[in-house]
C-alpha cells in the first residue's frame, strides 16, 4: 500500500503499529465500544494494508490446487477458501484467503507478504496457462462482520467479497477443537473482506466522515478474532508451525485431496502422531491493562522458574472476556494446570509496574483448551508393528 489510507484522516484516527501499520488501530478513547459496534455488524474496519494478488489464466485453480493444502480446483465464481503453502517438511510458509470471480482468483494475505507470495507462484508456472500479478496498490480490503454492500470491485462481473471459512468450517476438513461444533466461538466471527478500488475506499471514508457509516479500528477486529480462536499468520505462525497446532485443518486443509508439498507431514501427524504444540486461550489476571506481548513466555504456576511450556502469540482486552491471550503450549501441558505469563518492567506494556527492573512480573493465567491434547493419531498402529 503506497498511498496513505483516507481512514487515517478521519477524526481521532490513531495509526496502528506493525503488522497493522498504515491503517487506524482505533478512533479515540472507546476501543471497547468499537468492539461492541463491530460485533453487532454495524461498523467497517479499514484493512487496506493487506496485500492482494491476482492469478489469471485457464489453469489457475487446478494449478493452485496442486501446490497447496486446500481443494480449490472446483471453486465456483463467488466462492471463497482459505489456503496454505507449506514447506517440504509441512511447516506453514504462507496463509492466504482465495476468492474466485470466474476469470481470476484473488489471494488476500498479510501486509508485506504479497510480493513474496506472487514471486513464489510466478516461479512455479512452468508450462501452465497462468499469470500472477501483485494488485496490492490497486485493491484494498475493508472488513465487516456479516452481510454488507460496500461497493466491492467487480472487474469480471462478480463482486470481490471474501467470506472467511473459519466461521463454519469446510467440507473435507476436520476440527481438533475440544468445543462442540455448535458451540465453537467462530460462529460469532462471520468475517468478510470487501476488495474496493481507491475511489471506493475514498467514498467509504467520506461516508464515515458524513455520519452515514460506523467505523472500528483494527484493535477491535483483533479482539474479536482472538475471542473466536481464529489464528492469524502475523501472530500465531512461526517458523515451526504446522496446521494441526492451530486447528487449521478446520478451514484450510482438505484431507482427501491429491498430493501437494508438505502433505506427508500433514498425513503423518493426523494419522499416526500428535502435533507437538496446541493452541490455547489464556484468561489473564488483572484489570489494569497489562497485556503480554507476542513471544512472552508461559510457565507452569507450580514451577515459575522452570523451563517455559509455551509462548503468547496474541493478546487483547475483550469487552466481555477481559484480558485474554492466545498461546501455543506444549501438547503435554495438563489442561487443568494453572499457568503464569512472565513479564518484566522493561516491557513497555508494563512500564511503571511495581517491579524491580529485570525482575519477573508474572500474570496468572487459566487456560481454555482450543486444540485437544489428544488430537491426531486417528489410525492405531498394531502392537508389535515395526518397519523393516
Radius of gyration: 21 Å
CATH arch. level architecture of the largest domain: 2-Layer Sandwich
Q: Count of DSSP helices?
A: 7
**Biggest sheet: strands, sense, closure?**
6 strands, antiparallel, barrel
Number of beta-strand segments: 18
Report the order of strands and helices. EEHEEHEEEHEEEEHEHHHEEEEEE
Large-scale geometry: globular
Describe this structure in words.
It is a single chain. The protein has 2 domains: 6-236, Gyrase A, domain 2 (2-Layer Sandwich); 276-369, Aminomethyltransferase beta-barrel domains (Elongation Factor Tu (Ef-tu), domain 3), CATH 2.40.30.110. By secondary structure, it is of the alpha+beta class. Helix 1 packs across helix 5 (218-227). Helix content is 16%, strand content 28%.
Characteristics of this structure?
388 residues; alpha+beta; Gyrase A, domain 2; Elongation Factor Tu (Ef-tu), domain 3; 2 domains; 6-stranded antiparallel beta barrel; 5-stranded mixed sheet; 7 helices; 18 strands; globular; disordered C terminus
Amino acid at each position: 500500500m503506497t498511498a496513505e489510507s483516507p481512514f487515517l484522516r478521519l477524526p481521532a484516527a490513531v495509526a496502528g503499529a506493525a503488522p497493522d501499520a498504515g491503517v487506524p488501530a482505533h478512533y479515540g478513547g472507546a476501543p471497547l465500544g468499537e468492539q461492541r459496534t463491530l460485533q453487532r455488524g454495524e461498523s467497517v474496519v479499514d484493512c487496506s494494508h493487506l496485500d492482494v494478488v491476482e492469478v489469471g489464466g485457464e489453469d489457475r485453480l487446478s494449478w493452485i490446487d496442486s501446490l497447496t493444502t486446500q481443494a480449490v480446483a472446483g471453486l465456483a465464481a463467488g466462492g471463497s477458501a482459505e489456503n496454505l503453502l507449506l514447506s517440504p517438511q509441512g511447516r506453514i510458509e504462507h496463509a492466504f484467503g482465495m476468492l474466485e470471480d470466474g476469470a481470476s482468483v484473488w489471494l488476500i494475505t498479510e501486509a508485506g507478504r504479497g510480493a513474496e507470495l506472487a514471486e513464489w507462484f510466478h516461479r512455479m508456472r512452468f508450462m501452465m496457462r497462468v499469470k500472477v500479478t501483485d494488485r496490492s496498490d490497486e485493491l484494498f480490503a475493508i472488513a465487516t462482520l456479516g452481510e454488507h454492500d460496500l461497493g466491492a470491485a467487480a472487474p469480471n462481473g462478480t463482486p470481490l467479497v471474501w467470506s472467511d471459512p473459519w466461521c463454519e468450517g469446510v467440507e473435507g476438513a476436520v476440527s481438533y477443537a475440544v468445543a462442540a461444533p455448535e458451540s465453537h466461538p467462530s460462529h460469532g466471527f462471520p468475517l468478510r473482506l470487501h476488495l474496493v478500488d481507491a475511489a471506493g475506499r475514498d467514498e467509504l471514508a467520506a461516508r464515515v466522515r458524513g455520519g452515514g457509516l460506523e467505523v472500528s479500528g483494527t484493535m477491535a477486529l483483533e479482539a474479536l478474532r482472538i475471542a473466536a480462536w481464529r489464528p492469524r499468520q502475523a501472530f500465531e505462525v512461526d517458523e515451526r508451525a504446522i496446521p494441526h497446532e492451530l486447528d487449521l485443518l478446520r478451514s484450510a486443509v482438505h484431507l482427501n485431496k491429491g498430493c501437494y508439498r508438505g502433505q506427508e507431514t500433514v498425513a503423518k501427524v493426523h494419522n499416526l502422531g500428535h502435533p507437538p504444540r496446541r493452541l490455547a486461550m489464556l484468561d489473564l489476571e488483572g484489570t489494569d491493562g497489562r497485556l503480554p506481548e507476542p513471544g512472552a513466555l508461559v510457565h507452569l504456576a507450580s514451577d515459575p522458574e522452570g523451563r517455559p511450556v509455551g509462548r503468547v502469540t496474541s493478546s487483547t482486552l475483550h469487552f466481555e472476556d477481559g484480558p485474554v491471550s492466545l498461546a501455543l503450549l506444549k501438547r503435554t501441558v495438563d489442561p487443568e494446570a494453572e499457568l503464569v505469563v512472565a513479564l518484566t518492567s522493561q516491557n513497555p506494556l508494563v512500564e511503571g509496574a511495581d517491579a524491580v527492573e529485570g525482575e519477573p512480573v508474572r500474570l496468572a493465567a487459566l487456560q481454555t483448551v482450543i486444540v485437544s491434547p489428544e488430537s491426531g493419531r486417528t489410525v492405531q498402529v498394531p502392537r508389535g508393528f515395526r518397519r523393516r
